[in-house]
């Protein structure tokens, strides 16, 4: 089922469809690892396409002694800080050399601290930009997901995870798969993705089938969302996918089948504790999506 922007009163709808949605500031979170390249390269593509500013944020983690009150812990903490400062300076110097080759305006800031301190820094900066970009690998390989979750829960900002395969992408996605659920998280992810959806040539609004009537399965809310997007000038195709034991796998299979170049999804529709203990769509998408993945909570 396809829904265009040809319904309703032409004047109001056409004006809304033609209204540009601006992306002026992008934050790229980096750690000094080789996996940063995917986020930097994709960030440059986005900044170039939207005429945006790139704000790179180097997070330099300072470990803390396991037993903070044990004898010698202060000396150990000071040594950890000294070593981290050396590592941070080297990473910053290397990163500046990479950023000097960018064709867009940029700035680099570095935050040194414990995970809690870095979480505060990430929250603060994320609230000053339109979109946060980070490499998928840095999230998957992190000891925990506190910094990723600081963007979603504390700053309440969208985050775009970039897999290594997308480092060579040179333009905006032309085909986008939107994983729809009738939840605030899904609606916020779609709203955050609007600048990209308006520039895409094909947007597929997909949901995994559930039991019950159409209203219970969320088809009516999905039709409402499609009409909303149509008023923004987005031509949408609606698809209800067959039921999957693992909904994330079904969505990723569909993304591959349609040749999608971006997946949009709400994050943590269930509680984080339930996702940690039982698994969930959010964590499976983060681990296994091989396309840029835009999420919001």
UniProtKB/TrEMBL annotation:
SUPFAM superfamilies: Adenine nucleotide alpha hydrolases-like (SSF52402). It comes from the Bacteria. It holds the Pfam family Usp. InterPro entries: Universal_stress_UspA, UspA. Residues 175-296 form the UspA domain. CDD domains: USP-like. PANTHER family: STRESS RESPONSE PROTEIN NHAX, UNIVERSAL STRESS PROTEIN HP_0031. Belongs to the universal stress protein A family. This is Universal stress protein. It comes from Jiella pacifica. The lineage of its organism: Bacteria, Pseudomonadati, Pseudomonadota, Alphaproteobacteria, Hyphomicrobiales.
């Amino acid at each position: 089922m396809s829904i265009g922007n040809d319904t309703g009163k032409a004047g109001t709808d056409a004006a809304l469809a033609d209204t540009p949605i601006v992306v002026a500031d992008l934050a790229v979170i980096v750690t000094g690892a080789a996996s940063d390249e995917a986020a930097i390269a994709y960030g440059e593509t986005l900044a170039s396409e939207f005429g945006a500013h790139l704000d790179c944020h180097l997070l330099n983690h300072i470990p803390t002694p396991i037993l903070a009150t044990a004898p010698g812990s202060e000396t150990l903490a000071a040594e950890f800080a000294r070593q981290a400062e050396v590592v941070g300076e080297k990473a910053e110097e290397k990163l500046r050399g990479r950023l000097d080759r960018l064709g867009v305006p940029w700035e680099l800031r570095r935050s040194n601290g414990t995970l809690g301190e870095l979480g505060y820094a990430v929250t603060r900066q994320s609230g000053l930009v339109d979109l946060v970009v980070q490499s998928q690998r840095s999230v998957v390989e992190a000891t925990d997901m506190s910094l990723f979750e600081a963007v979603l829960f504390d700053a309440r900002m969208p985050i775009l995870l970039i897999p290594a395969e997308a480092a060579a992408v040179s333009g905006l996605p032309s085909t986008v798969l939107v994983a729809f659920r009738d939840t605030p998280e899904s609606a916020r992810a779609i709203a955050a993705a609007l600048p990209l959806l308006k520039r895409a040539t094909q947007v597929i609004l997909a949901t995994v089938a559930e039991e019950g009537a159409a209203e219970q399965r969320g088809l009516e809310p999905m039709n409402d969302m499609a009409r909303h997007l149509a008023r923004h000038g987005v031509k949408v195709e609606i698809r209800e996918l067959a039921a999957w034991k693992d909904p994330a796998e079904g969505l990723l299979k569909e993304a591959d089948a349609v040749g999608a170049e971006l997946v949009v999804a709400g994050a943590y529709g269930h509680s984080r504790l339930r996702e940690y203990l039982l698994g969930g769509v959010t964590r499976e998408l983060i681990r296994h999506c091989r396309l840029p993945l835009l999420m919001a909570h």
